[in-house]
């Protein structure tokens, strides 16, 4: 069973696609974007994942796709970024790093 099969089963079972992880506020589509799982991203978008949800640092799925973390998979990240843009991901957003005390330390990036 691959990741695509698991995601498809979750979607079919009606799992809440836009739920946010308590500790950092990341969603399933954010994580799929960050880790370069382009087919999972596509499946989540088609099923209604919210590309505008922010995590606790103000990062969106588009930030995660553009940031990527596996440079040898740049083509996958380019595809994911395009998917997000084609499906209405907000582009006029800023993300902020938040200190442990809860204050904003500065703008890290603008997509």
Structure commentary:
With 111 residues, the protein is α+β, with helices and mostly antiparallel strands. Helices cover 41% and strands 11% of the residues. It has five helices and two strands. It has a two-stranded antiparallel sheet with strand order 1-2. A hairpin with a 5-residue loop joins strand 1 (94-98) and strand 2. The protein is globular. 31% of the residues are buried.
Pick out its properties.
111 residues; alpha+beta; two-stranded antiparallel sheet; 11% strand; disordered C terminus
Produce a short descriptive summary.
This protein has 111 residues and is an alpha+beta fold.
Topology:
Blueprint: H1 3-12, H2 28-34, H3 38-46, H4 61-67, H5 74-86, E1 94-98, E2 104-110
Antiparallel strand pairs: 1-2
Helix pairs in contact: 1-3, 2-3, 2-4, 3-5, 4-5
The coarse overall form would be globular
What is the count of helical runs? 5
Query: For the largest beta sheet, what order do the strands appear in spatially?
Result: 1-2
Radius of gyration, rounded?
A: 14 Å
Q: What quaternary form is this? A: single chain
Tally of extended strands?
2
Series of secondary-structure elements, N-terminal to C-terminal: HHHHHEE
Q: Give the uncertain stretches in residue-range form.
A: 102-111
Class from secondary-structure proportions: alpha+beta
Average per-residue pLDDT, rounded, comes to 81
User: Helix amount, in percent?
Assistant: 40-55%
How far apart the termini lie comes to 35 Å
Proportion of β residues? 5-15%
Q: Mind summarizing the main beta sheet?
A: 2 strands, antiparallel
